């Protein structure tokens, strides 16, 4: 089995995945509560928490899978992109484990990991397809021709879709992270009560900063009581504009086979708007280590002990 480790942002995660793509264990310790009072992830706080959690989370994955390190034949870890201090904790843990056990180590690109959430059983999706990757850090349209990688067709010019959800939730007083809160509140709102702009930039790129400003203006003019009364309508209209922008870009690509991954792929309105798309399973949308182990199945491993100088990288 492959032991996957993911610490690129505010989830400390470990998973066991077989070489056929079956998930044996998938443990995610979210730090969201820790960062909520700051309204977003504080990088240094995240690094320190990863350091406390990484070993217990790996042990928990082994326990959940009824396995020991004897069952692990390679270690996969996210090396890029992400918060550099957070990444380094996972990379150091992975190196130490792999080195102590004389195992190969597989350095994984986090974005490849999100796409590889589709390669796990039972979904086991075969390329080619066009993939929308929408998360807190990225919003991209990808051309996926084989399981080993992807080509970027379009990306966001400013905020990521998940970031737009999180900033919108903050303006609406819904706390962090906000995507799920907006998703839930929007169900009781009227999406047509407010007109929010859907940005249309040239090509297959995305833009969400104008939308965020529109929400800011709408909220600014309301008293606290008015905001309380209109919060669900605002959430519904705001979510509708984000979903429209994402769906329009997929349509503009002319893709016939479409897949959606990343934290925003958990959004119920987006899922309903794409009935024919392959959607990452809900548990695998937000950051996890099963997707990292899955990507490792299609990534070159570094044999023992060649990975000791392996470094993490903040950028893709
Ligand atoms: O993939 P992910 O866990 O982290 C990154 O790699 O960035 O995505 C997290 C993002 C957050 O911005 C969160 O608000 C958003 O995914 N998210 C959602 C939903 N669940 C999580 N956005 C919209 N609707 C949801 N149900
Ligand atoms: Zn992610």
SSE topology:
Layout: E1 2-6, E2 11-17, E3 23-30, H1 32-36, H2 43-64, E4 74-80, H3 84-101, E5 105-109, H4 110-116, E6 129-134, E7 139-144, E8 151-155, H5 161-171, H6 179-186, H7 209-220, H8 224-253, E9 258-261, H9 268-273, E10 278-279, H10 290-296
Parallel strand pairs: 1-4, 4-5, 6-9, 9-10
Antiparallel strand pairs: 1-2, 2-3, 6-7, 7-8
The protein binds 5'-O-[(R)-(carboxyoxy)(hydroxy)phosphoryl]adenosine and zinc ion.
5'-O-[(R)-(carboxyoxy)(hydroxy)phosphoryl]adenosine binds near residues 166 and 177.
Give an overview in words.
The structure is a single chain. This protein has helices at 32-36, 43-64, 84-101, 110-116, 161-171, 179-186, 209-220, 224-253, 268-273, 290-296; strands at 2-6, 11-17, 23-30, 74-80, 105-109, 129-134, 139-144, 151-155, 258-261, 278-279. It has 316 residues and is of the alpha/beta class. The chain folds into two domains: 2-118 and 286-309, Nucleotidyltransferase, domain 5 (2-Layer Sandwich); 127-279, Nucleotidyltransferase, domain 5. The mean pLDDT is 97. The longest helix is centred in the last third of the chain and has 30 residues, at 224-253. A hairpin with a 6-residue loop joins strand 7 (139-144) and strand 8. Residues 110, 114, 135, 287 line the site of zinc ion.
């Amino acid at each position: 089995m492959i032991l996957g480790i993911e610490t690129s942002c505010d989830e400390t995660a470990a998973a066991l995945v077989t070489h056929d793509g079956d998930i044996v264990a998938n443990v995610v310790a979210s730090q969201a509560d820790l960062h909520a009072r700051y309204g977003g992830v504080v990088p240094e706080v995240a690094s320190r928490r990863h350091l406390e959690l990484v070993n217990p989370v790996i042990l928990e994955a082994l326990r959940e899978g009824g396995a020991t390190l004897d069952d692990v034949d390679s270690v996969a870890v996210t090396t890029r992109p992400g918060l550099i201090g957070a990444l380094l904790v996972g990379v150091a843990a992975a190196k130490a484990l792999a080195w102590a056990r004389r195992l190969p180590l597989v350095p994984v690109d986090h974005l490849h990991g999100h796409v590889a959430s589709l390669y796990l059983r039972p979904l086991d999706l075969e390329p080619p397809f066009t993939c929308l990757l929408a998360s807190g850090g990225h919003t991209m349209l990808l051309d996926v021709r084989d399981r080993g990688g992807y080509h970027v067709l379009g990306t966001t010019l400013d905020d990521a879709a998940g970031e737009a959800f999180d900033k919108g939730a903050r303006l609406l007083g819904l706390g962090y992270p906000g995507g799920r809160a907006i998703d839930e509140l929007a169900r009781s709102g009227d999406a047509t009560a407010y007109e929010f702009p859907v940005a249309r930039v040239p090509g297959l790129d995305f833009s969400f900063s104008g939308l965020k400003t529109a929400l800011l203006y709408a909220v600014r003019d309301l008293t606290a009581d008015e905001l309380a009364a209109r919060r669900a309508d605002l959430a519904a209209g705001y979510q509708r504009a984000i979903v429209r922008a994402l769906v329009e870009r997929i349509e503009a690509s002319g893709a016939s086979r479409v897949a959606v991954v990343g934290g925003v792929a958990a959004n119920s309105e987006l899922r309903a708007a794409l009935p024919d798309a392959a959607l990452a399973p809900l548990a695998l949308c937000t950051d996890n280590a099963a997707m990292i182990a899955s990507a490792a199945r299609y990534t070159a491993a570094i044999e023992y002990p060649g990975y000791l100088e392996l470094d993490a990288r903040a950028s893709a």
